[in-house]
Amino acid sequence: MRLSCCVNAGDNAIALIGFMGAGKSAVGRELSRRTGWPRYDTDEMIREQFGISIPDIFARHGELAFRDAETTLLKTLQRGLGGIVVTGGGIVLREENVRLLRRMGRIIWLDADEEILWQRASRHSTRPLLQTPDPRARFAELLRERVPLYQTATDYRINTSSSSIAEVTDEIIALL
Ligand code: S3P
User: Per-residue pLDDT averaged across 79-100, rounded?
Assistant: First the structure.
């Protein structure tokens, strides 16, 4: 894992949170391109650390190992320079993670209408939490559980339902 990076307390780091399909990764990439700020995508970094895909991490090591890796990674991101932190949809499940993100800078919640989130998320079958007999029902259940957590964690909420990646990025840049 890259330990020599990262986001300094007090820097204007931006953390993107939100449910699967919210567009965090795409917006994070565009934001990084436009601002020149480094991007730290927790899913990507955890994949690199384990050397296998996220579904394989869940299958071989269990969800708890993935969640522990998220928290450990956020702790390492406390050191260094500012940037954009792109998180996995479950990052808000631990209060400790939210505290760590807050210390880095502003937290932005990318949200969208449920049906739109589902359409986007179900285009890729790689989400381990949706490998169930009724993924649509599981999706709705997880979203219901998570919305209050995103609400509590966030400084700013952006509805991405009818916005392009460029428009969402513009809105974030206007906040900086
Ligand atoms: C998860 C979302 C995924 C990934 C992992 C767990 C979740 O990231 O971190 O599969 O708990 O919602 P995305 O939000 O980028 O899909």
Answer: 90
